[in-house]
Specification:
By secondary structure, the protein is α+β, with helices and mostly antiparallel strands. It has four helices and eight strands; from the N terminus they run ββααβββαβαββ. The longest helix is centred in the first third of the chain and has 18 residues. The mean pLDDT is about 90.
Length: about 170
């Protein structure tokens, strides 16, 4: 894939908007019980993933943000998905999930850093939120490493979660 296909890039990851042809890669990612261990809803289904793609595409058109496929720049292989979603209260959430073969390589930290940098340049929100179950030490560590600050602990989607925030400043 050529560079112009990516909305943003980090040193190892190209980010492009989710597309319908990502469905099989998303099925592999989001039906893996290990990958989805900390997701309250458990594994996903192809139908729900089709809806996710459609919602993300609509969000890009309506809000200027949505979810990206993460593509390994070196090989062109699908690595996972990451991006932004609007919460019910109007806040914007950032999230990331990688295929298990990419765990432990610093890629989630790299992805989150790139996404927060992009948000600071591209979105008009005052801050970005992220949250994870209190027991998901790896994801909470990624948030802290990216400079996100602890905000609160509360129930989200039926699970006790830590929320972190990243203020966006224009400059």
């Amino acid at each position: 894939m050529v560079d112009t296909d990516y909305t943003l890039k980090s040193s190892r990851i190209g980010f492009r908007a989710l597309e319908e042809n990502d469905l099989q890669d998303l099925v592999k990612l989001d039906t893996d019980p290990e990958v989805r261990a900390f997701f309250p809803g458990g594994v996903s289904t192809p139908d729900l993933l089709r809806e996710k793609i459609a919602k993300s595409r609509a969000s890009f058109l309506e809000n200027g943000f949505g979810e990206f496929s993460m593509i390994e720049l070196k090989t062109g292989r699908f690595m996972g998905r990451a991006g932004f979603a609007g919460l019910e209260d109007g806040e914007i959430e950032v999230g990331y999930v990688l295929l298990e073969e990419y765990w432990g390589q610093g890629l989630a930290s790299e992805a989150l850093g790139a996404l927060l940098d992009w948000a600071g340049k591209s979105l008009s929100a005052p801050r970005i939120l992220a949250y994870a179950p209190v027991g998901h030490k790896a994801s909470l560590g990624v948030m802290r490493k990216a400079g996100m600050r602890y905000l609160k602990t509360e129930i989200a989607r039926g699970v006790n979660c830590e929320f972190h925030e990243y203020p966006l400043t224009k400059g």
